[in-house]
Design brief:
The complex is a heterotrimer of chains A (about 425), B (about 325) and C (about 290).
Chain A (H helix, E strand, L loop, with lengths): L1 H4 L4 H28 L5 E7 L6 H20 L8 E7 L4 H14 L4 E4 L3 H14 L3 E3 L16 E3 L4 H12 L6 E7 L2 H17 L2 E8 L10 H6 L4 E5 L3 H12 L2 H4 L1 E4 L4 H7 L1 H4 L3 E4 L10 H13 L7 H20 L4 H9 L2 E3 L6 E3 L6 E2 L2 E6 L12 E7 L17
Parallel strand pairs in A: 1-2, 1-3, 3-4, 4-5, 6-7, 6-8, 8-9, 9-10
Antiparallel strand pairs in A: 10-14, 11-12, 12-13, 14-15
Chain B lengths: L10 H4 L2 H10 L1 H15 L3 H23 L8 H16 L5 H23 L4 H21 L1 H4 L12 E4 L2 E4 L3 H24 L1 H11 L1 H6 L4 H27 L9 H14 L6 H19 L3 H15 L3 H11 L1
Helix pairs in contact in B: 3-4, 3-9, 4-9, 4-12, 4-13, 4-14, 5-6, 5-12, 6-7, 6-12, 9-12, 10-12, 13-14, 13-16, 14-15, 14-16
Chain C lengths: L5 H32 L6 H19 L2 H24 L8 H22 L15 E4 L2 E4 H23 L1 H11 L1 H6 L4 H23 L9 H16 L4 H22 L5 H13 L13
Antiparallel strand pairs in C: 1-2
Helix pairs in contact in C: 1-5, 1-8, 1-9, 1-10, 2-3, 2-4, 2-8, 2-9, 3-8, 5-6, 6-8, 9-10, 9-11
The chains are: A alpha/beta (about 425), B mainly alpha (about 325), C mainly alpha (about 290).
């Protein structure tokens, strides 16, 4: 390997020097650039989301919606004239990168709050960094763990659904009727286990009986080897408790192996982007829980206004479920700041401690005092077959919208909170 | 590289780059420490400077095996990751003080290095790369499944070291600048050790193995043992980098053990200059800055990173620092 | 433990064989390139993804699965030829880690280009109507498409075997792999042979990707796991050995499938465990040439 290095010519040496100089200039430039444009008076909202990687388009829609939230807040006068500004960063779906970006936002940009995340590992890591430094953080991804006393801190907020709430609603729908036989296919990580636990508590209430329970490694390409066991257990319902590419592959292969004809399929979390990537055939008839679907505009005035503002700003289209988390997450924190009369972590926690109710885009929501969980409606959706779709955005049918209330969450005591 | 000039050199002669290089390379630890000491002033934010420091040390440890001994390991994530987990588990689960935790991290990474090295050094060439990759993935799965201790996919949280008291000195580790210089102290110590290793007879022999393994064997050296020793020492440096990273971030993510981390460190060393003392730090700085800058322009930064890497391997196999050194010495 | 019915085990084995065929298909291109060019192709996963996207792209124009299946290898060859000529050929004769690192970088670039051209989300793609549905063996149903993939793999391997063992081109390949100097002294343009071999390996990777498309999602990262799996198969089978890849691929498919039945969450660990074990007992792999390992 060493000999080859001797072949470096004079011209390439010059190129190296130029390259090095450009790199050095590049290093110094952003520092200057960012400082020159910072506005000291504004409320700075850091927004680290995974713009690169498999969930790039979910993250891009979260940014679009978050920008809309900032705009709506500023239009309404801001916080006594103090306007908000969004600082978007790419967390690359990697916990270490997300913490680095969080430290950048806190230490250099001096943000007032951070909103974001699309995976459980990133959510918990960013929360840890924000908690230690006393910066308010509103997590957007689905998690039960973050509400528990061990990970929760006074600066923690959680706009994302708690599986106990969303899967609870889904399970009560899917397990209704005489005692159903249920098979579970569970992704081998926190997200899967949380969903499984949530289904379990519903199963105990409804008398559903577990006939098979299979854990699969994350990122599995081919699930066909798991199917014989599922088929032979003869379940009425198959609960698929994974996300993203894994979910897409399971549903594609389940259709291929004719599982859909033998049982109904329920997924713990349904997302528009995954449905579009997987295609109507793979998802047809699948039932799942979600935080938002645009067709709710016929039920809620706030949803109608949100959809209209989105379409106006981005020239058509509808906000996605994950995208709307970006809106709700940013807007609710800013509205909380309005209530608190400031953006300090203590002031926000104080304002949240008396309960905070609002309706920003999906009907009534509330921040629970003990764990700052957003109590919200759960959408039970059914994926449409190609023939039933009236347009490219007409992907789901709303089976029901289950309004959230305190009784459907795990109790504060159960989570380990004192109050 | 000792100067043989007898007459007192004029000022211009003193400014001669070759002469300067000769002087600097005699004091490479000091020179490296000086550059790293001013690094926070050069990069846009402190967390990036800390990453350069940590990944630079990681790359330096990898360079011992890759650049100096001539073994392309594709499993170095295992050494970095176990160092991070060892330190993290000691703090978050066992509640040990930070200095003991760093030691635990070093024990974890050194044991992993001894095991992986011991098994992989039986093979050669690209096979060595594949075996290290496979064994590192085995460790990844092990730590992934060991949820009760490592937190599994969710990562290990609670690796908090808010402040440190050493005698009369009180350091606030939530202050990024204090944290930087605290970590720098460890990196400088590591570089001193690294320099000593390179200057020792052992350092000369591993470079001999890289150049011609058969000749080294014919000269009566136990090549297997020397390669293994190099791998284990590498584990010490990479594990220290991992342990410092755990303290820096306050969390340990399972990604630190994933094979992509091994790929990153290969890229850094090649970008900086394999087989050079300071090259890994230059490579880490170049890689991380490139990523930081391009990620602000476009979500397709991987395209740019990939192209730069290809160009580097294809046209500048000496890397940035290696090419600069070659020019100055020419 | 309750008794497991025989037909269930039979189905599990059949599923494993079908899975193994995909492993074999992916490992074939990799082992071909390694065996003849001594290149560890880290861009293999990216080529696999590129093949799937190329096929789906061709399908949107032709609307015909079979035409697209024919188009993929030719399209892939157009990627493979310049890759070998301009990226890899200049580093022949240097340390084998050079092509490894170059293809590693190339993999990044290809995946990112796919994201730019086709988006990050993936594209839905289904099996052709003729291959939809299942065949029934008594009580057991098995998808037609997977049976087709098994048959296709067998045909492809037979074709490759014929090409390498029975044609004059194959004779040059085999001779060139043993001793390139002698072959070029005899007046054969070896550089063109290497280029064609690399293109062939790329084409096989692309076809594997396209065949996988109706079973798995067509997404930019689809090659990542596959690359790792293909490495494991090639190393276990013996790098550069085509029969080794076939034996290792099929048996690994069955092992993974049976592990899935008893402990599904360990189904990917088992691959690496077997690989580590094989490397300890027999570093060159099942049918590998020992000089690679020592």
């Amino acid at each position: 390997m060493r000999d080859s290095a001797k072949a470096v010519t004079g011209s390439s040496r010059r190129t190296i020097l130029k390259f090095t100089a450009a790199l050095a200039a590049g290093c110094a430039l952003p520092a200057f650039h960012r400082r020159a444009f910072a506005q000291p008076a504004s409320i700075k909202v850091g927004f680290p989301v995974p713009l690169t990687g498999p969930y790039g388009s979910e993250a891009a829609d979260q940014v679009r919606c978050a920008q809309l939230a900032i705009e709506d807040f500023n239009k309404a006068g801001g916080l006594n004239g103090r306007l908000a500004e969004l600082l978007v960063r790419d967390d690359k779906l990697n916990a270490a990168e997300a913490v680095t970006r969080t430290l950048e936002l806190i230490e250099k940009d001096k943000v007032d709050m951070i909103v974001g995340s699309l995976s459980g590992a990133v959510l918990l890591a960013v929360n840890e960094a924000c908690k230690a430094r006393g910066v308010p953080y509103n997590g957007l991804s689905i998690s039960d763990r973050i509400n528990e006393a061990k990970d929760f801190g006074p600066t923690t907020y959680h706009e994302g659904l708690a599986p106990h709430l969303s899967v609870g609603a889904l399970g009560r729908y899917a397990f209704a009727g005489s005692s159903k036989k249920v098979a579970y296919l569970i992704a081998d990580y926190e997200f899967g286990y949380e969903m499984r636990r949530a289904f379990q508590s519903v199963a105990e209430q409804t008398g559903a009986q577990t006939v098979a329970e299979i854990k699969h490694p994350l990122g599995m390409q081919d699930f066909s080897s798991l199917f014989p066991k599922i088929i032979s257990a003869k379940p009425d319902v198959l609960c698929v408790l994974n996300f993203g590419r894994d979910q897409l592959n399971v549903l594609k292969q389940a259709s291929e192996f004719g599982l859909k004809e033998r049982m109904s399929i329920v997924v713990g979390a349904l997302s528009t982007t995954q449905r579009i990537a997987g295609g109507a055939d793979a998802y047809a008839g699948v039932i799942g829980a979600s935080n938002y679907y645009w067709a709710a505009e016929t039920k809620f005035a706030s949803a109608k206004a949100f959809n209209a503002a989105y379409a106006a700003k981005y020239k058509g289209g509808v906000p996605s479920d994950y995208g709307s988390y970006g809106y709700g997450g940013v807007r609710s924190m800013l509205e909380l700041a309005r209530k608190a009369g400031g953006v300090g972590a203590a002031a926000l926690a104080d304002a949240a401690s008396t309960g905070f109710k609002f309706d920003l885009y999906k009907g009534p929501q509330e921040i629970r005092a003990c764990d700052h969980q957003s109590i919200q409606a759960v959408f039970i959706l059914k994926s449409k077959a190609e023939a039933e779709m009236k347009g490219p955005n007409d992907t789901f049918e709303i089976v029901s919208i289950v309004q959230g209330d305190e009784s459907k969450l795990r109790s504060c005591a159960e989570l380990g909170h004192k109050a | 590289m000792k100067s043989t000039a007898v007459a007192t050199p004029s000022m211009w002669e003193r400014m001669d780059p070759r002469r300067l290089m000769g002087g600097v390379s005699q004091h490479r630890v000091l020179a490296s420490a000086a550059v790293l000491a001013v690094l926070p002033l050069l990069v846009p934010y402190p967390a990036l400077a800390i990453n350069v420091l940590i990944y630079g040390l990681f790359a330096a440890g990898f360079n011992l095996v890759f650049g100096y001994t001539g073994l392309l390991s594709l499993g170095h994530a295992a050494l970095f990751g176990t160092g991070a987990y060892g330190c993290g588990i000691a703090i978050a689960v066992l509640g040990l003080p930070w200095y003991a935790a760093i030691l635990v991290g070093l024990v974890f990474s050194t044991v992993s290095a001894a095991l992986i090295g011991g098994l992989a050094i039986r093979t050669r060439g690209v096979y060595f790369g594949m075996v290290t990759l496979a064994l590192a993935q085995c460790l990844y799965f092990l730590f992934y499944q060991w949820v009760s201790v490592t937190g599994g996919e969710s990562g290990l949280r609670g690796v908090m070291v808010p402040s440190i008291d050493i005698g009369p000195i009180h350091l606030d580790l939530f202050d990024p600048v204090q944290k930087y210089y605290f970590l720098l102290a460890f990196v400088v110590l590591a570089l001193m050790a690294f320099s000593r290793i390179l200057d020792s007879p052992f350092g000369a022999v591993i470079e001999g193995i890289r150049e011609n393994e058969n000749r080294a064997r014919a000269s009566g050296y136990n090549v297997w043992f020397l390669k293994w020793m190099s791998f284990v020492l590498s584990g010490l440096f990479c594990g220290l980098a991992g342990a410092l990273n755990a303290i820096h971030l306050g969390v340990v993510s399972i990604d630190s053990l994933f094979y992509t981390t091994s790929g990153t460190v290969v890229m850094m060393v090649l970008l900086g200059g394999m087989g050079t003392f300071f090259g890994p730090f230059v490579g880490a700085a170049a890689f991380l800055s490139l990523e930081d800058i391009t990620a602000n322009w476009t979500s397709h930064w991987q395209l740019i990173a990939g192209l730069v890497f290809i160009a580097c391997v294809r046209f500048f196999p000496r890397g940035i620092w290696g090419s600069i050194l070659a020019r100055l010495r020419a | 433990m309750t008794e497991i019915p025989f037909d269930l085990i039979a189905l599990q084995v059949l599923t494993g064989l079908a899975l193994g065929c995909i492993y074999v298909l992916v490992a074939t291109g990799l082992t071909l390139i390694f065996g003849l060019l001594n290149i560890v192709n880290f861009a293999h996963g990216a080529f696999y993804a590129a093949g799937a996207y190329l096929g789906v792209f061709a399908f949107t124009y032709t609307g015909n699965f079979w035409l697209s299946l024919v188009a993929v290898p030719f399209g892939m060859a157009l990627i493979g030829l310049p890759t070998e000529r301009f990226l890899l050929r200049p580093v022949y004769g240097r340390d084998p880690s050079y092509p490894l690192l170059l293809t590693f970088g190339l993999g990044y670039v290809i995946v990112e280009l796919i994201r730019i051209a086709f988006g990050t989300d993936g594209i839905p793609f289904n099996a052709p109507a003729a291959l939809k549905g299942s065949l029934f063996f008594g009580d057991i149903a098995f998808p037609r498409y997977r049976l087709f993939v098994m048959a296709f793999t067998a045909a492809l391997l037979a074709g490759l075997w014929f090409l390498i063992e029975k044609t004059s081109f194959g004779l040059i390949i085999r001779a060139g792999a043993r001793n390139p100097e002698i072959v070029s002294v005899l007046g054969v343009d070896t550089s063109r042979v290497w280029m064609l071999i690399f293109a062939l390996g790329t084409a096989v990777a692309g076809v594997a990707g396209f065949l996988a498309a109706p079973m798995r999602g067509v997404i930019p990262e689809m090659g990542v796991t596959v690359l790792i799996e293909a490495f494991v198969i090639t190393v276990v089978g013996g790098m550069g050995s085509l029969p080794g890849a076939v034996i290792a691929g099929l048996s690994m498919g069955v092992v993974v499938s049976l592990t899935s039945y008893f402990a599904a969450d360990y189904s990917n660990v088992v691959m690496f465990a077997i690989m580590a074990a094989v490397l300890l007992v027999r570093p060159q792999g099942l049918l590998g040439r020992p000089e690679f390992a020592r």
